[in-house]
Amino acid sequence: QVGRSSIRKDFTAVSGAVRYDDDDGEEEDLNPEISADEEEANEEDERKRNKLVQAISSMGGGHRSTRLEERSEAVIQVSEFGVNAVGEGSKIELSDLIPTATKKAQKQIETLQRGRKTLDTPLSRLLPDINSQQNLTIQNQRAEQLLFPLNQEPSGPKPMEHVVTAWKARTPLEQEIFALLNANKQPIHNPVLTPAEEESIKAMSLEEAKIRRAELQKSRALQSYYEAKARRERKIKSKKYHKVHNKAKRKEMLKQFDEMVKTNPEAALEELKKLEMARMQERMSLKHQNSGKWAKSKAIMAKYDEDARKAMQQQLELNKDLTQKVVTALNNDEEEDNEEEEGTEEVLPDFVNDAEKAENVANPWMRGKLTEEEQEEEKISMMVDEAVVIEESSEEEEEVNGEEALLREFENRRQRRKEEENQMADQDEEEEEDVVAEDELSEFTSIIRGLKEKPEELIVDNSMPLVEGLTRIQTFEDAENLDLEMSENIKDDVTEIVQLEETTKEPSPKKAKKRKRNIELKEVLTKEAKVVNVPLKFTTEEAEEEDLEDEIHQRGLIKEAFAGDDVVSDFLKEKRKQEAAGKPKVIDLTLPGWGEWGGLGLKPSKNKRRKFRIKTGPVVQRKDSKLPEVIMSEQRDKSITPHQVSSLPFPFDNHTQFESTIRCPLGRTWNSEKTVKKVTQAKVVTQLGAIIEPMGREELKKSQQNASHQKSQSQTATNQKKAQPERRKKQAQKRKKHRE
Amino acid sequence: DNEPEKNDGESERPLQRKAQKPKKRKQEDTGRDSRQGKKFVSGVRLIQKFKRKEEMSKSRHKHHKLKRLIAQSEDASKMAQNQAARFDLLLPEDEGFLEGDEGEDTCTISQEDIANAVDISASAKYFNLKLSQFGPYRLDYSKTGQHLLLGGRRGHIACLDWQSKQLMCEINVLESVNDVKWLHSESMYAVAQKKWLYIYDSNGIELHCIRKFNDVLRMQFLPYHFLLATASATSFLQYLDVSVGKEVAAICTKSGRLDVMCQNPYNAIIHLGHPNGTVTLWSPNQKEALVKMLCHQGGVRSVSVDKTGTYMVTSGMDKKLKVYDIRAFKPLKSYFLPTGASCLSLSQRGLLSAATGDVVQVYRDVWSTPVTKPYMAHRVRGAVWGIHFCPFEDVLGVGHGDGFTSMLVPGAGEPNFDGLDANPYRSAKQRQEWEVKALLEKIQPQLISLDPNKLGEVDRATFEQKHQDRIEALGFDPLEKQKFVPRFKKKGRSSAGAVERRKKQVAHEDQREVIKKSIEDKMRTEKEQKQKNSKASAVSKQKSALDRFRK
């Protein structure tokens, strides 16, 4: 009814005239346009009309709405049919559109209306499904290999469990046996382990987990108090304190290191490397070398100010200390070797600021002044330790990532800490547990250490050192005159070297250029001839049997032998020629007479020549620039380029990534069979003749199950380490709840 | 007691060797990088040995596909490495070595003594062939070490299965013979005769006379490329592809008579020695020498490169023996031999044999430790003309004026052979199959270069060129990141400070998001953690009745 009325109203909106639409076909047109003069007459009309309307409405029955809504305001948007203003009125019903509704039609419409449901947009229905499949799709896209059809029964022998579970005892004998087995708790379906065995295994894992957990807890606690300690120390602003502290630390480290050399040489080696690194850095840097701003200012004052002088001196001393080489039993051996080899060489300091090296540096009295502060340092360390003990209980937050590293650290400090462990009796329960577990731990960790460190010891650099051993520089003639025995006085050698240097300094000025390169070609050729003893003296009978050809050849050889003198200079000439050819050429484009006077005997000015001289390219350093006796071709080998990859394939950003991925050979010649199979496996494998069905929902489920299974597995794996106690806690909580 | 104590049957096959290992040697071989220690070495070093590439440094942001690809390749390489290390167990054999009594020099032990001490089959490998008529002899062993080819200066050519002493063929070419060389298998060999290069089969039938190759003095065969490289008196270095019979390259070296030649087995580069004391390195792809090194003051008499391509040993007229690191072209060691070495040969395990006149000396470890005396020495009759270690055997073949001598040199040969590469025990059928496979896997001569891994590198020059072309075509560099240039604004709003401010607004925009995201993540996780904690604490904080008495 409402609808009908609204339609009526809409019609009025369009035509501008009120139009009464009747089901029965009665239509009344009334003209509302009335002039102002006839207002009274109008009122009369209105009354009459109302009457008429009332009469009609009473005639038509009560179901029709009498409310007529007139449009009272201007509306911007008018619907297509000029029916309704926006937001005004209500929905159009189907029945409204049908002018004459017989009862039958009415009924039909009603049934239609009853059965109506709105349909969703097509994709939105599928969306969750697609989303759930996305994981699987990605998984399949990323899989190294896909096997089709998807749900294939794995061929080959089945595991025994599967076979056994499918089988059932039928005959009385079998049943009897099974009864026996059952009675004795022997495994029936899972024949691998008896329950007792499984239990024992579980027990084992528990124990391990306990140990593991204890270690982790320990490390966490340690970490926390180290952190706290560091934080506290960082806050201290006193420079003096830090100075002293650093000194003490260094001292302590050295001491520890000395101990370690005896007890644990591998770790000591590592430590030594670190020390060496620190020393290197110190030597590289300009720190403590009186070259800073402060030092410069002090240097100005040094003339007058005693303190400034002292301060500078101190800094230098510090530098000396820091650049002091740590001498231990570890590198003693090598050094001894070196000394043996070098023999006469003086012991020179590595650095200008270094003091002359003392011979017996292992002696602590010779190592510096640090020994004076030892007491103080010890005090500090004691203090620190106490603080650590106090703070131990306070913080227990964990950081899982660093656990492994911490464990290692823990190992290193274990011995130092042992004493403190004894004092820790008044700590929390967990701490106590740790102490209890200590003994077990020590065994456990010692095993770990044994495992870890053995291989390290055996990683020896394969490559042979390319360092020359004993090199004695001699001229060619010297070498020839030498006797077979090589034991000579060192003094002689030294003089020889001096002589040689004199002789090599003399020759042509051409070589002055070469001299810069450190390696003198002549020296390279003539140096170090190690004479080899030969037990059998060779006989020169060959000459007897020689042919004419051989003689010619021999003559050639002799000639060749005497040609040796200018071999070096020839080579140098050639090398220089090559270098010159490779250099960028300078093109002179000056034209005489342009812009200035020209003519006989006149040369273009320097300025002009400079202007018009063009350099063709940057100077490229030759590959052989540091090898005086080698000429390397600078030509690019183009023949291989067609076989090389010249553009980066899609996902790669740079050359090194790509080159590294294709670096490993794939073929059977270089790999084991298994590797070849893995590396060359096909992306998609289909079974011949099998129908490949589209992926069904069960696949999806399976993959989800797998994923969840894996997740849970990995979780359990990670949890197992710290698992049991937590689980117990939880259980206890649960019980608590129950009770409450 | 003068008899030398010899460890295991030198040239015996691996299985027997192991059985006879004496105890004493363990103390002896500390100084050497012997394989014996290997067995007791942990996996780490072994795995290190099979390392083919360094692990990639992980960059920050990568395409997810790239990440996956790199991870996969890394996995594969790791697996290959581990597997190879695992299978290294299957190579149980060590090369042996000679050990004297206390105070006894190994170089004074005579070949007869050694032959008496070892088992019969090994002692049978010491023999002399007295061929005084057509000498002096050059020789070559086939790749598997089973066959020997002898070429006498006066035209006598013989090839034989030297272990069974079975003669395969014997001919006289009635011309002077400069050099002989087996080709890829024992069914064919090349002979450099007075004028041309000839190819014969194992029955002595002349297959080819190659007129393009004249006056050849020395030859080398590159087995994986099927290339026969020849050095001629006319100073030409020529390459013949024996699989198709084509000349691949002919290079005029412009340095006179070429009678010193060897190959680098690692990268198939040919080394030539010259009378002006230089050694030059050649590939068929370049008309000039790749490298020219001045090695000796006199002429170079002989050159040899070890199996790994690391060391080069040269001897010259200045009576010196020099060891170079050929990867860096740097001299390592220099020795003075009272009589310079005329021929050099390096064995598979790195023993160096040098012929000085009629004495053959064998040195051990010439590159790592300074050597003062030879490991072994042996005098042959007549001047030595050719010298060659037999692959996979502890045998040194010496061709001299009076024929041929097969010497026993313990520790020379590689004890573990690769059955797919060179199988000494292969049958005729296996040889045929190997031949087909080898031909299929033939490496093209274009790929010969100093660095054999060059093929795996991206051709940067072409890449750059292509990139340049692209830039030219597009008018801009597509890979370049565009710089932000602030627009000029009027009314003094483009003052330097304002411009800088505007630049700052867009600076590091790409990073900002990442940072923002990471910070957000962090905050979220922290929040979650807090919530969790608060919940946990709420649970644990349930007060008991006695809590009120707590301080």
From TrEMBL, chain A:
Q: Which is an annotated Pfam family here?
A: Utp14
Q: Which GO terms describe its biological process?
A: rRNA processing
Spans annotated as Disordered: 17-69, 331-439, 628-652, 695-740
Compositionally skewed regions (Acidic residues) per UniProt: 21-44, 332-348, 388-402, 422-439
Biased-composition ranges, Basic residues, are: 727-740
Question: What segments bear the compositional bias annotation Basic and acidic residues?
Answer: 405-421
Q: Which UniProt keyword terms apply here?
A: Nucleus, Phosphoprotein
Write out the annotated subcellular location. Answer: Nucleus, Nucleolus
The coiled-coil segments of this chain are: none
Where are the compositionally biased (Polar residues) regions?
703-719
Q: Which domain of life is it from?
A: Eukaryota
Question: Cellular component terms, GO, for this chain's entry?
Answer: small-subunit processome
Family stated for the protein in its record: Belongs to the UTP14 family.
PANTHER family reported for this sequence:
U3 SMALL NUCLEOLAR RNA-ASSOCIATED PROTEIN 14, U3 SMALL NUCLEOLAR RNA-ASSOCIATED PROTEIN 14 HOMOLOG A
Q: Supply the name of the protein.
A: Uncharacterized protein
- What species is given as this protein's source? Periophthalmus magnuspinnatus
Automatic annotation (TrEMBL), chain B:
Q: Where is the composition biased (Low complexity)?
A: 534-543
Keyword Repeat present in the record's keywords: the answer is yes
Positions of the UniProt region annotated as Disordered: 1-41, 490-551
> Which regions are flagged for Basic residues bias?
16-25
A single cellular component GO annotation: small-subunit processome
Composition-biased stretches (Basic and acidic residues):
1-15, 26-36, 506-531
InterPro entries reported in the protein's UniProt record = BING4_C_dom, WD40/YVTN_repeat-like_dom_sf, WD40_repeat_dom_sf, WD40_rpt, WDR46/Utp7
The record's subunit annotation is:
Part of the small subunit (SSU) processome, composed of more than 70 proteins and the RNA chaperone small nucleolar RNA (snoRNA) U3. Interacts with DDX21, NCL, NOP2 and EBNA1BP2.
Its function, per the record, reads: Scaffold component of the nucleolar structure. Required for localization of DDX21 and NCL to the granular compartment of the nucleolus. Part of the small subunit (SSU) processome, first precursor of the small eukaryotic ribosomal subunit. During the assembly of the SSU processome in the nucleolus, many ribosome biogenesis factors, an RNA chaperone and ribosomal proteins associate with the nascent pre-rRNA and work in concert to generate RNA folding, modifications, rearrangements and cleavage as well as targeted degradation of pre-ribosomal RNA by the RNA exosome.
Q: What is the protein's given name? A: WD repeat-containing protein 46
Q: Which organism is it from?
A: Periophthalmus magnuspinnatus
